Amino acid sequence: MNSAVVAGAKPALRPLALACAISLSILTAHATEASAQDQAPSTVVVTGARFPGDAATTPIGATVITQDDIRRAGVNDVDAAIRKIGGVFGRQSLDGSPDFGLDLGGFGTNSAQNMVIFVDGVRLNENELSNTVLSTIPIDTVDHIEITRGGNSVLFGEGATGGVIQIFTRRAQQQGLHGSVFAEGGQFHEHDARASLSQVSGPIAADLSVMRQGTQNYRANSAFDQTSMSLGLQSRFEAGRVGIRVESARQDSRLPGSLSLAEFEADPRQSMTLKDFGALNTDRITAFGEVRIGEVDLAAELSHRERNVRSNYLSSKYPSISAYDSRQDQFSPRARWRTQVAGMGNELVGGIDLIRWKRKTTADYSLADASQSSKAVYLRDELRFDPAHDGRLAIGARHELFDKDYSDALSTNPAESTSQSQNAWEAQASVKPLPLLEVYGKAGQSYRVANADENSYRYGNGILKVQTSHDVELGASIGNEERKLTARAFRHKLDNEIFYDPTLNDGFGANTNLDPTEREGFELDGEAKLAADWRASAHLQHVVARFTDGPNAGREMVLVPKNTLSLRLAWQPSANQTVDAGAQFVGRQRYGSDFTNSCAAHVPGYATLDARYALQVKRWELALSGLNLADRHYFSNAFACQGGIYPSDGRQMKLSLRYAF
Q: Is residue 574 classed exposed, middle or buried when 0-12, 13-18 and 19+ CB atoms within 10 A define those classes?
């Protein structure tokens, strides 16, 4: 098995894979037999301060999406699970992929830079203007997803102002061989084939998932094809576990481009860029370990990722071909000390995050070399001060240093090398004054630094300043698993927000630090068991994003809908049948270029419906699902006043078959 892991890695990854495999073999030789509990089916273990724990240590105000939730809704990728089940607003992708742009907290076109996404403790965000790619994570490997809204820079670093999404893959625990195969076909020549296997033998567990997806998509010249693989190997011993995971994905996309409003109204399926296409290849290898020594838990991840992007824009008057080759290394050791202080439970967590990122650009307009390294140290303490009322008080701080280098042989600007540092802090408290009522409050400072793309096309002298946000949140939750309602009010007051201003540079636009801005609003989450076989859930967000000072004071930020609402209804008419239906509503928003709020029109609001029916017969599951059932013509991405429109998908029906063993 170890040799298979090493052989499956790219040449650049093989030394790390070999070292991990040797270490794993040594530890395996001394591993103890798995306990009876290890052999039982896995349960959801939430992760608080970057360590696994029980439900009592769930991050304050977090939303958890389980494997059962994902199966019941019938979603085929992680992005869709976060949007449909977690209630996170998402914008249609620009390249035909299922990777919608997720937006926590109303940050518009820069939402990806104000939200941090982790997979098994490894940061996925890139140091460039691109969305985090989630479609390469096989959905069958996901155990659960945690969504924590609001500022979280203490534990998760820069860019965590809007919130953090953590994705956790399964830890195979059932002894023997288990797996599943899945096949789906649908309109627009959509096809999805997946297979997953897990083998547990004593303390040794291995898992393999492969996936092939493809579709011609709704629009012309928007075909998408993807192949991905995930291979994991781990060994459990009396005090912890160690393992490695190797992942690889290949994407090919046609690029349909944008439309004017008149073109959209005439035919939303057309494309004016029939020659444009691109490709994305990613490879990642991660070594991980956890061990308990007395009252102290130790954990670490060592990850290496390579990413290659190819873009071919051949339809325009001035065609261009570009290549972006980047790599990122991360090492994140940390420790947790759980003890009793004056009869109260206390959890002290500290750690270090070391990240190094490099990118080479090859294009007729740029030969840029960019790099960034960051070094961070953080400390967080949580005290359970009132066990009778589940009282919790947490404080934490982080310091992070960034070193940036940039040079471009085709640019007249001199090479740049600079350093920036920033601090974050947080204070949180929660208590249950009544058995079914919990109230909480959070305050802190979060931050983000400009990425390589923003600094390379900026306005003014010197690199862009660090964006800081003072975050406040108050919330309450009432109910239990049968019926529960959670409400939260939040505010982010930002200084030096990093944003693209289309009015600068004589109307050509540039990235800059804005005058003071804010995001404030509230969210409601509800779920209820309506009857023995009926369950409903809902998520409502209202957010106002605007300038608070300067010449634009009072004006709204662009591409931020004030209101979003998602509803889901699950029905189980019999033991072997399930029905799941959902509705999503998005209110109107400013066009992407409407910085001065002078455009006479808004991006219209819209509502969509989806549903799924599944029939279980022994180990087989047959399902029929539909997206955008009302066949609404709408769009969520529009970068010019009544133009720059990327139409969203029309109605699609799909049929799937799954076999589990």
A: exposed
Averaged pLDDT of the chain: 90
Widest CA span of the chain, in angstroms? 73
Q: Hey, how many other C-beta atoms are within 10 angstroms of the C-beta on 258?
A: 20
Round to whole Å and give the CA distance between 591 and 613: 37
Please state the separation of Cα 224 from the chain's center in Å: 21
Q: What is the pLDDT of residue 131?
A: 87
d(CA 511, CA 514): 9
Distance (Å, whole) CA 170 – CA 167: 10
β-strand 368-386 against 344-363: which pairing, if any? Answer: antiparallel
| pLDDT number for residue 50 | 86
Predicted local confidence at residue 56, as pLDDT: 57
Can you give the C-alpha Rg of the chain in angstroms? Answer: 24
CB-based contact 436:478 (threshold 8 Å) = yes
Cα–Cα dist 505/502, whole Å:
8
For 611-636, write each residue's pLDDT tens digit. Answer: 999 999 999 999 999 999 999 999 99
Report the amino acid identity of residue 12: A
Give the number of residues written for the chain.
Answer: 661
Q: What single-letter amino acid sits at 596?
A: T
Q: How far apart are CA 355 and CA 329, in angstroms?
A: 6
Instruction: Tell whether the model's pLDDT for residue 21 goes beyond 90.
Output: no
pLDDT of residue 14: 42
* Residues 554, 281: Cα–Cα separation, whole Å: 43
**Do 184 and 168 contact (CB within 8 A), yes or no?**
no
Cβ atoms 305, 344 nearer than 8 A: no
Structure tokens belonging to residue 95: 């390249």
What is the SS3 assignment for 213?
strand
> How far is Cα 531 from Cα 483, in angstroms, rounded to an integer?
11
* CA neighbor of 522 nearest in space, from 572, 486, 560: 486
Residue 28 pLDDT:
36
The closest alpha carbon to 119, from 240, 282, 349, belongs to 282
Q: How many CA atoms lie within 13 A of 16 on its CB side?
A: 22
Query: pLDDT digit string (tens) for 81-98?
Result: 999 999 999 999 999 899
d(CA 423, CA 377): 10
Q: What is the mean pLDDT of residues 465-485?
A: 95
